[in-house]
Amino acid sequence: MVDHRSSPTPAVTPPHAPSPLAAAFSLWAWVPIRSLAPRHRSRIADHLKALGPHDRYLRFGYPATDEQIDKYVEHIDFDRDEVFGIFNRRLDLIAMAHLANVSMPQCGSNAVAEFGVSVASKARGRGYGARLFEHAVMHARNRGVDTLFIHALSENTAMLKIARKAGATVERSGSETEAWLKLPPETIATRFGELMEEQAAEIDYRLKVQAHRFQEIIDAITEVKTHISNKPPSASG
């Protein structure tokens, strides 16, 4: 691991403002991202344990075992950090991000948050990692965070591509790479945007819960009908 205490203060580049066309496309391609809470620990653990060995290696920087994942999930501080997730229609957690508040001496009194993300293999190629990063940036700005930090393996090209695209300064040190993104202050737009996203994501989740329960009822009825139709007729006297 890189010793952050001895690292020089990095130069960071503010992210570029999105064009009107990009902003419109972002709205059209909206993805429901929901804040996670302690009650979601088991779902977080299931999501991370479903990652293959190489994906675990990229996410944690080492080939994490199930026991190590359980310990990581158990120690997530939901009062200090923020965890976001994307659920599919079956209420499976298919992507999640951990935005951890950290203290780094080289950053002085500036507030710094570290970003980590994972996406299920079946949900790759849909831009979920980038969406979670954008959501984390907006959330961090609204909480007064000055700098977003990413510590990743150099071979984690997908994560580093997201960081570079956002305008982060990326510094490689052998097998490990650090990315630093200077965040502008919050605005009315970021406050309103986060509020609208949270409300929309909550409505989306509740609709998925209702649809899931309705499907369970339909499946139960179908199973009963199948059982009755397959039951042999009783012998007559």
List keywords for this structure.
single chain; alpha+beta; Aminopeptidase; 19% strand; 237 residues
Describe the structure.
The chain starts with 19 loop residues before the first helix and ends in a 7-residue tail after the last helix. 43% of the residues lie in helices and 19% in strands. The protein is globular. It has 237 residues and is α+β, with helices and mostly antiparallel strands. The chain has one domain: Gcn5-related N-acetyltransferase (GNAT) (Aminopeptidase), CATH 3.40.630. It has seven helices and seven strands. The protein has a seven-stranded mixed β-sheet with strand order 1-2-3-4-5-7-6, sandwiched between helices.
Write the layout of secondary structure elements.
Elements: H1 20-28, E1 34-35, H2 41-49, H3 53-60, H4 66-74, E2 82-87, E3 93-102, E4 112-119, H5 128-142, E5 147-153, H6 157-165, E6 169-173, E7 176-182, H7 188-230
Parallel strand pairs: 4-5
Antiparallel strand pairs: 1-2, 2-3, 3-4, 5-7, 6-7
Helix pairs in contact: 2-4, 5-7
Order of helices and strands: HEHHHEEEHEHEEH
Strand content: 15-25%
The number of E-state strands comes to 7
Which overall shape is indicated by the principal axes computed on the Cα atoms?
globular
Number of helices: 7
User: What oligomeric state do these chains adopt?
Assistant: single chain
The mean pLDDT is 82
Which residues sit in consecutive blocks of at least 5 with pLDDT less than 50? 1-28
Largest sheet: 7 strands, mixed
Query: Any idea of the CATH topology?
Result: Aminopeptidase
Q: What is the count of distinct domains?
A: 1
